[in-house]
Amino acid sequence: VVPPEIRCFFAKIFSRVCNSFSSYCYFDITEIDGVNTNELYNAVQLYLSNSPSITSATHVNLTRHLNSSAFTFGLSSNDRLLDSFSGAAVVWEHVVTPRQSPPFSWRSFPDEKRRFTLRIHKKDKPLMLESYLDHIMERATEIRRKNKDRLLYTNSKGGSMDARGMPWESVPFKHPSTFDTLAMDPNKKLEIMADLRSFADGQDFYQKTGRAWKRGYLLYGPPGTGKSSMIAAMANYLGYDIFDLELTEVVTNSELRKLLMKTTSKSIIVIEDIDCSINLTNRSRPKNPQQPQPPQPQQPSPEAAEGDDVRKTITLSGLLNFTDGLWSCCGSERIFVFTTNHIEKLDPALLRCGRMDMHIHMSFCTFPALKILEVVDLAAMTPADISEVLIKNRMDREKAVSELLNVLREKAERQGRNTVEAGGKNSGEEDEEEEQEKRALESPKEGNGFEEKENCEKVGIGGEEIKED
Ligand SMILES: Nc1ncnc2c1ncn2[C@@H]1O[C@H](COP(=O)(O)OP(=O)(O)OP(=O)(O)O)[C@@H](O)[C@H]1O
Ligand SMILES: [Mg+2]
Question: Among the four residues 111, 139, 165, 424, which has the most C-beta atoms within 10 Å?
Answer without folding.
Answer: 139
